[in-house]
Amino acid sequence: MEKTEQIPKYILDLAREFRQKPTMTEEFLWHCIRDRQINGYKFRRQHPIGRYIADFYCHEASLVIELDGKHHLSEDQKEYDKARDEELTLRGLRILHVPSKEVVLNPEKVLTDIISFLP
Questions:
Q1: How is residue 6 annotated by DSSP?
Q2: Torsion angle of the four alpha carbons 9, 31, 111, 64, in this order, in degrees rounded to the nearest 10
Q3: Do 12 and 48 touch, CB atoms closer than 8 A?
Q4: Taking the domains of the chain in order of start, what are their residue ranges?
Q5: pTM here?
Q6: What beta strand segments (E) does the chain contain?
Q7: Which of 20, 22, 37, 39 is the most exposed place for a label (fewest CB within 10 A)?
Q8: Superfamily designation of domain 22-117
Q9: Contact (Cβ atoms closer than 8 angstroms) between residue 66 and residue 98
């Protein structure tokens, strides 16, 4: 993301709201990756990138982590996710999709997957 890019105010407001009301799964993963706990990499949560909001974002690694819950199974959401992924990929970002239930059922695997995406 270029520093000169203007993020729409409604996106900034929405990201702030999402940070204030995380899902249980987001909260759990955040406690595992915050404060540079994963190989010294800094992650941000609910981070605006253009007109999208990444669940988690690491600038140093050009990595977006998206938690995919049940709502990601609808056709409308699948189309939205595809468009978002295409735009983020064009920005040079890599996207790691993590099923929400995997965070709770197998957090060690999720953290190993995240580490494998880091340089």
A1: P
A2: 10
A3: yes
A4: 22-117
A5: 0.91
A6: 44-49, 52-58, 63-68, 94-99
A7: 20
A8: VSR Endonuclease (3.40.960.10)
A9: yes
The answer to whether 53 touches 14, Cβ cutoff 8 Å, is: yes
pLDDT in tens, 27-51: 999 999 999 999 999 999 999 999 9
Closest by CA to 48, choosing from 92, 10, 82, is 10
Around Cβ 29, how many Cβ atoms within 10 Å?
A: 26
Polymer length of the chain: 119
For 47-68, how does the pLDDT look when each residue is reduced to its tens digit (9 = 90+)?
Answer: 999 999 999 999 999 999 999 9
Tokens representing 65 are 């982590």
CA 48 to chain centre: 10
Q: Which residue has tokens 């941000």?
A: 44
| Those residues with Cβ within 8 angstroms of residue 69's Cβ, 6 or more apart along the chain or in another chain | 23, 25, 100
Which parts of 21-106 fold into alpha helices (H)? 24-33, 75-90, 100-105
